[in-house]
Amino acid sequence: xxxxxxxxxxxxxxxxxxxxxxxxxxxxxxxxxxxxxxxxxxxxxxxxxxxxxxxxxxxxxxxxxxxxxxxxxxxxxxxxxxxxxxxxxxxxxxxxxxxxxxxxxxxxxxxxxxxxxxxxxxxxxxxxxxxxxxxxxxxxxxxxxxxxxxxxxxxxxxxxxxxxxxxxxxxxxxxxxxxxxxxxxxxxxxxxxxxxxxxxxxxxxxxxxxxxxxxxxxxxxxxxxxxxxxxxxxxxxxxxxxxxxxxxxxxxxxxxxxxxxxxxxxxxxxxxxxxxxxxxxxxxxxxxxxxxxxxxxxxxxxxxxxxxxx
Length: 310
Hints:
Layout: E1 7-9, H1 14-21, E2 28-31, H2 37-42, E3 50-53, E4 63-66, E5 69-73, H3 89-99, H4 105-110, H5 113-119, H6 125-132, E6 136-141, E7 144-149, H7 150-153, E8 154-156, E9 159-160, E10 167-174, E11 180-187, E12 197-206, E13 209-218, E14 225-226, H8 228-234, H9 253-265, H10 276-309
Parallel strand pairs: 1-3, 2-3
Antiparallel strand pairs: 4-5, 5-10, 6-7, 6-10, 8-9, 11-12, 12-13, 13-14
Helix pairs in contact: 8-9, 9-10
Protein backbone atom coordinates (compact mmCIF):
# COMPACT_ATOMS: atom_id res chain seq x y z
CA UNK A 1 0.00 0.00 0.00
CA UNK A 2 1.32 3.46 -0.93
CA UNK A 3 -1.01 6.04 0.63
CA UNK A 4 -0.27 9.63 1.38
CA UNK A 5 1.07 10.30 4.88
CA UNK A 6 -1.53 10.13 7.66
CA UNK A 7 -1.77 9.91 11.44
CA UNK A 8 -3.31 6.82 13.01
CA UNK A 9 -5.18 6.47 16.30
CA UNK A 10 -6.76 3.42 17.97
CA UNK A 11 -9.47 4.50 20.41
CA UNK A 12 -10.77 2.06 23.04
CA UNK A 13 -14.20 3.64 23.53
CA UNK A 14 -16.83 5.36 21.43
CA UNK A 15 -16.15 8.57 23.33
CA UNK A 16 -12.46 8.46 22.38
CA UNK A 17 -13.33 7.80 18.72
CA UNK A 18 -15.75 10.72 18.63
CA UNK A 19 -13.15 12.96 20.26
CA UNK A 20 -10.66 12.04 17.55
CA UNK A 21 -13.19 12.66 14.78
CA UNK A 22 -14.21 15.93 16.39
CA UNK A 23 -10.93 17.59 15.47
CA UNK A 24 -12.55 19.52 12.63
CA UNK A 25 -9.27 20.91 11.40
CA UNK A 26 -8.25 17.51 10.00
CA UNK A 27 -9.69 15.26 7.32
CA UNK A 28 -10.44 11.99 9.10
CA UNK A 29 -11.61 8.53 8.00
CA UNK A 30 -12.94 5.70 10.14
CA UNK A 31 -11.37 2.26 9.69
CA UNK A 32 -13.43 -0.83 10.53
CA UNK A 33 -13.14 -3.47 7.78
CA UNK A 34 -11.35 -1.11 5.44
CA UNK A 35 -12.31 -3.11 2.35
CA UNK A 36 -13.12 0.06 0.38
CA UNK A 37 -11.13 2.64 2.31
CA UNK A 38 -7.74 0.93 2.02
CA UNK A 39 -8.01 0.59 -1.76
CA UNK A 40 -8.97 4.25 -2.15
CA UNK A 41 -6.07 5.27 0.07
CA UNK A 42 -3.69 3.07 -1.92
CA UNK A 43 -4.81 4.78 -5.14
CA UNK A 44 -4.64 8.13 -3.31
CA UNK A 45 -8.16 9.00 -4.37
CA UNK A 46 -8.74 9.53 -0.64
CA UNK A 47 -6.00 11.26 1.34
CA UNK A 48 -7.04 11.41 5.02
CA UNK A 49 -4.89 13.25 7.48
CA UNK A 50 -6.12 10.99 10.26
CA UNK A 51 -7.35 7.37 10.31
CA UNK A 52 -9.42 6.36 13.33
CA UNK A 53 -9.27 2.57 13.77
CA UNK A 54 -12.34 1.47 15.75
CA UNK A 55 -11.50 -2.24 15.84
CA UNK A 56 -10.51 -2.12 19.53
CA UNK A 57 -13.88 -0.83 20.76
CA UNK A 58 -15.66 -3.87 22.29
CA UNK A 59 -19.06 -2.19 22.60
CA UNK A 60 -19.31 -1.94 18.81
CA UNK A 61 -18.75 -5.65 18.23
CA UNK A 62 -22.09 -7.30 18.84
CA UNK A 63 -25.46 -8.17 17.36
CA UNK A 64 -28.63 -8.51 19.41
CA UNK A 65 -32.41 -8.65 19.17
CA UNK A 66 -33.96 -5.73 21.03
CA UNK A 67 -37.74 -5.84 21.03
CA UNK A 68 -38.88 -6.13 17.42
CA UNK A 69 -35.54 -5.02 15.95
CA UNK A 70 -32.13 -6.48 15.18
CA UNK A 71 -29.33 -4.20 16.30
CA UNK A 72 -26.10 -4.74 14.35
CA UNK A 73 -23.00 -3.15 15.91
CA UNK A 74 -20.52 -1.29 13.75
CA UNK A 75 -17.92 -4.09 13.91
CA UNK A 76 -20.19 -6.99 12.95
CA UNK A 77 -18.70 -8.53 9.79
CA UNK A 78 -20.59 -9.50 6.66
CA UNK A 79 -19.81 -13.16 7.29
CA UNK A 80 -21.93 -13.12 10.45
CA UNK A 81 -25.05 -13.27 8.25
CA UNK A 82 -24.08 -16.18 6.02
CA UNK A 83 -26.11 -18.68 8.05
CA UNK A 84 -29.86 -17.98 7.89
CA UNK A 85 -30.39 -18.98 11.53
CA UNK A 86 -27.93 -16.31 12.74
CA UNK A 87 -30.91 -13.91 12.76
CA UNK A 88 -34.46 -14.98 13.71
CA UNK A 89 -37.20 -15.46 11.16
CA UNK A 90 -37.47 -14.24 7.57
CA UNK A 91 -35.00 -11.40 8.17
CA UNK A 92 -32.26 -13.98 8.68
CA UNK A 93 -33.19 -15.62 5.37
CA UNK A 94 -33.10 -12.29 3.55
CA UNK A 95 -29.72 -11.28 4.97
CA UNK A 96 -28.20 -14.70 4.22
CA UNK A 97 -29.41 -14.55 0.61
CA UNK A 98 -27.97 -11.09 0.14
CA UNK A 99 -24.61 -11.52 1.84
CA UNK A 100 -23.28 -14.20 -0.52
CA UNK A 101 -23.38 -11.58 -3.28
CA UNK A 102 -20.90 -9.35 -1.45
CA UNK A 103 -17.50 -9.84 -3.10
CA UNK A 104 -15.81 -13.03 -1.83
CA UNK A 105 -15.01 -14.73 1.52
CA UNK A 106 -11.94 -12.67 2.52
CA UNK A 107 -13.91 -9.45 1.99
CA UNK A 108 -16.91 -10.80 3.89
CA UNK A 109 -14.69 -11.80 6.80
CA UNK A 110 -13.50 -8.20 7.30
CA UNK A 111 -16.07 -5.82 5.85
CA UNK A 112 -19.03 -4.67 7.94
CA UNK A 113 -22.68 -3.78 7.41
CA UNK A 114 -22.17 -0.42 9.13
CA UNK A 115 -19.18 0.22 6.88
CA UNK A 116 -21.42 -0.27 3.83
CA UNK A 117 -23.81 2.32 5.24
CA UNK A 118 -20.88 4.64 5.87
CA UNK A 119 -19.49 4.22 2.36
CA UNK A 120 -22.94 4.54 0.70
CA UNK A 121 -22.10 2.96 -2.64
CA UNK A 122 -25.19 2.83 -4.92
CA UNK A 123 -24.50 -0.89 -5.57
CA UNK A 124 -24.47 -1.85 -1.87
CA UNK A 125 -26.76 -4.76 -1.04
CA UNK A 126 -27.08 -3.80 2.63
CA UNK A 127 -28.04 -0.20 1.89
CA UNK A 128 -30.93 -1.18 -0.39
CA UNK A 129 -32.21 -3.66 2.19
CA UNK A 130 -31.97 -0.96 4.83
CA UNK A 131 -34.04 1.46 2.74
CA UNK A 132 -36.62 -1.20 1.87
CA UNK A 133 -37.12 -2.23 5.49
CA UNK A 134 -37.02 1.26 7.02
CA UNK A 135 -33.82 0.57 8.91
CA UNK A 136 -32.31 3.10 11.29
CA UNK A 137 -28.67 4.25 11.42
CA UNK A 138 -27.36 5.07 14.89
CA UNK A 139 -24.61 7.71 15.01
CA UNK A 140 -22.76 9.38 17.86
CA UNK A 141 -20.98 12.72 17.64
CA UNK A 142 -19.82 15.62 19.79
CA UNK A 143 -23.47 16.61 20.37
CA UNK A 144 -24.49 13.11 21.47
CA UNK A 145 -26.31 10.19 19.82
CA UNK A 146 -29.03 10.39 17.20
CA UNK A 147 -30.91 8.01 14.91
CA UNK A 148 -31.36 8.59 11.17
CA UNK A 149 -34.01 6.77 9.13
CA UNK A 150 -32.41 4.95 6.19
CA UNK A 151 -34.77 6.73 3.80
CA UNK A 152 -33.33 10.08 4.92
CA UNK A 153 -29.75 8.90 5.35
CA UNK A 154 -28.61 8.41 1.73
CA UNK A 155 -28.10 11.64 -0.22
CA UNK A 156 -26.24 10.38 -3.29
CA UNK A 157 -23.15 8.38 -4.25
CA UNK A 158 -20.90 8.27 -1.15
CA UNK A 159 -23.00 11.06 0.42
CA UNK A 160 -25.01 10.61 3.60
CA UNK A 161 -26.67 12.59 6.37
CA UNK A 162 -23.91 11.55 8.79
CA UNK A 163 -21.76 14.49 9.80
CA UNK A 164 -17.95 14.18 9.49
CA UNK A 165 -17.54 14.25 13.28
CA UNK A 166 -20.07 11.45 13.82
CA UNK A 167 -19.39 7.73 14.14
CA UNK A 168 -21.85 5.05 13.04
CA UNK A 169 -22.31 2.83 16.09
CA UNK A 170 -25.03 0.47 14.84
CA UNK A 171 -27.69 -0.27 12.23
CA UNK A 172 -31.15 -1.35 13.39
CA UNK A 173 -33.35 -3.51 11.16
CA UNK A 174 -36.96 -4.50 11.91
CA UNK A 175 -37.60 -8.20 12.39
CA UNK A 176 -40.05 -9.69 9.89
CA UNK A 177 -43.12 -11.70 10.85
CA UNK A 178 -43.61 -15.34 9.90
CA UNK A 179 -46.30 -14.36 7.39
CA UNK A 180 -43.63 -12.55 5.35
CA UNK A 181 -41.70 -14.09 2.49
CA UNK A 182 -38.37 -12.69 1.32
CA UNK A 183 -36.27 -12.69 -1.81
CA UNK A 184 -32.99 -11.31 -3.09
CA UNK A 185 -31.63 -11.65 -6.62
CA UNK A 186 -28.59 -9.93 -8.12
CA UNK A 187 -27.34 -9.52 -11.68
CA UNK A 188 -23.69 -8.73 -12.44
CA UNK A 189 -21.19 -9.38 -15.21
CA UNK A 190 -18.84 -11.59 -13.20
CA UNK A 191 -18.89 -13.03 -9.70
CA UNK A 192 -16.55 -10.37 -8.36
CA UNK A 193 -18.13 -7.32 -10.03
CA UNK A 194 -20.45 -4.86 -8.34
CA UNK A 195 -24.12 -5.50 -9.04
CA UNK A 196 -25.41 -3.99 -12.25
CA UNK A 197 -28.86 -4.39 -10.69
CA UNK A 198 -30.18 -6.25 -7.65
CA UNK A 199 -33.55 -6.44 -5.92
CA UNK A 200 -34.56 -7.17 -2.32
CA UNK A 201 -38.20 -7.93 -1.54
CA UNK A 202 -40.35 -8.73 1.47
CA UNK A 203 -44.01 -9.67 0.91
CA UNK A 204 -46.56 -10.00 3.68
CA UNK A 205 -49.63 -12.02 2.71
CA UNK A 206 -52.87 -12.36 4.68
CA UNK A 207 -55.62 -14.72 3.46
CA UNK A 208 -53.93 -14.95 0.09
CA UNK A 209 -53.84 -11.16 -0.40
CA UNK A 210 -50.72 -8.96 -0.29
CA UNK A 211 -51.09 -6.68 2.73
CA UNK A 212 -47.57 -5.21 2.68
CA UNK A 213 -44.79 -5.09 0.10
CA UNK A 214 -41.28 -3.77 0.40
CA UNK A 215 -38.94 -3.62 -2.57
CA UNK A 216 -35.39 -2.26 -2.46
CA UNK A 217 -33.45 -1.53 -5.66
CA UNK A 218 -29.67 -1.80 -5.88
CA UNK A 219 -27.69 0.34 -8.36
CA UNK A 220 -30.91 1.60 -9.92
CA UNK A 221 -30.34 5.28 -9.13
CA UNK A 222 -27.56 7.40 -7.62
CA UNK A 223 -28.48 5.93 -4.20
CA UNK A 224 -30.35 2.89 -2.87
CA UNK A 225 -34.07 3.38 -3.38
CA UNK A 226 -37.37 1.88 -2.36
CA UNK A 227 -39.75 1.04 -5.22
CA UNK A 228 -42.84 2.61 -3.68
CA UNK A 229 -44.91 2.83 -6.86
CA UNK A 230 -44.31 -0.87 -7.52
CA UNK A 231 -45.21 -1.65 -3.92
CA UNK A 232 -48.51 0.23 -4.23
CA UNK A 233 -49.36 -1.74 -7.36
CA UNK A 234 -49.20 -4.96 -5.33
CA UNK A 235 -51.26 -4.01 -2.29
CA UNK A 236 -54.58 -5.86 -2.12
CA UNK A 237 -53.57 -8.22 -4.92
CA UNK A 238 -54.26 -11.94 -4.81
CA UNK A 239 -51.14 -13.85 -5.73
CA UNK A 240 -52.82 -17.07 -6.80
CA UNK A 241 -50.84 -19.97 -8.26
CA UNK A 242 -47.42 -19.19 -9.68
CA UNK A 243 -46.80 -20.00 -13.37
CA UNK A 244 -45.18 -23.37 -14.00
CA UNK A 245 -42.46 -22.00 -16.28
CA UNK A 246 -39.69 -19.54 -15.42
CA UNK A 247 -41.29 -16.63 -17.31
CA UNK A 248 -44.04 -14.56 -15.73
CA UNK A 249 -46.97 -13.71 -18.04
CA UNK A 250 -47.16 -10.00 -18.86
CA UNK A 251 -50.45 -9.70 -17.00
CA UNK A 252 -49.19 -11.24 -13.77
CA UNK A 253 -49.08 -8.75 -10.87
CA UNK A 254 -45.38 -9.44 -10.30
CA UNK A 255 -44.57 -8.68 -13.93
CA UNK A 256 -46.62 -5.47 -13.74
CA UNK A 257 -44.81 -4.46 -10.55
CA UNK A 258 -41.50 -5.01 -12.32
CA UNK A 259 -42.46 -2.68 -15.14
CA UNK A 260 -43.68 -0.04 -12.68
CA UNK A 261 -40.43 -0.27 -10.71
CA UNK A 262 -38.33 0.08 -13.86
CA UNK A 263 -40.26 3.02 -15.32
CA UNK A 264 -41.56 4.95 -12.30
CA UNK A 265 -39.28 4.18 -9.36
CA UNK A 266 -35.85 3.62 -10.87
CA UNK A 267 -33.57 6.39 -12.08
CA UNK A 268 -30.77 4.26 -13.52
CA UNK A 269 -27.39 5.73 -14.34
CA UNK A 270 -25.56 4.41 -17.40
CA UNK A 271 -22.27 2.60 -16.81
CA UNK A 272 -19.91 0.46 -18.92
CA UNK A 273 -21.72 -2.65 -20.22
CA UNK A 274 -25.12 -1.42 -18.94
CA UNK A 275 -26.85 1.58 -20.48
CA UNK A 276 -30.06 3.03 -19.06
CA UNK A 277 -32.46 0.94 -21.15
CA UNK A 278 -30.55 -2.25 -20.35
CA UNK A 279 -30.84 -1.45 -16.65
CA UNK A 280 -34.56 -0.74 -16.88
CA UNK A 281 -35.13 -4.09 -18.55
CA UNK A 282 -33.01 -5.85 -15.93
CA UNK A 283 -34.90 -4.11 -13.11
CA UNK A 284 -38.26 -5.15 -14.53
CA UNK A 285 -37.21 -8.79 -14.85
CA UNK A 286 -35.45 -9.00 -11.49
CA UNK A 287 -38.32 -7.41 -9.55
CA UNK A 288 -40.69 -10.03 -10.93
CA UNK A 289 -38.31 -12.87 -10.18
CA UNK A 290 -37.57 -11.62 -6.67
CA UNK A 291 -41.26 -11.29 -5.83
CA UNK A 292 -41.77 -14.81 -7.08
CA UNK A 293 -38.89 -16.00 -4.88
CA UNK A 294 -40.44 -14.23 -1.90
CA UNK A 295 -43.75 -15.97 -2.52
CA UNK A 296 -42.05 -19.35 -2.77
CA UNK A 297 -40.19 -18.61 0.46
CA UNK A 298 -43.42 -17.77 2.28
CA UNK A 299 -45.22 -20.87 1.03
CA UNK A 300 -42.28 -23.09 1.98
CA UNK A 301 -42.20 -21.49 5.44
CA UNK A 302 -45.92 -22.11 5.91
CA UNK A 303 -45.66 -25.68 4.68
CA UNK A 304 -42.84 -26.37 7.14
CA UNK A 305 -44.89 -24.78 9.94
CA UNK A 306 -47.89 -26.95 9.12
CA UNK A 307 -45.64 -30.00 9.07
CA UNK A 308 -44.32 -29.12 12.53
CA UNK A 309 -47.86 -28.75 13.86
CA UNK A 310 -48.84 -32.16 12.54
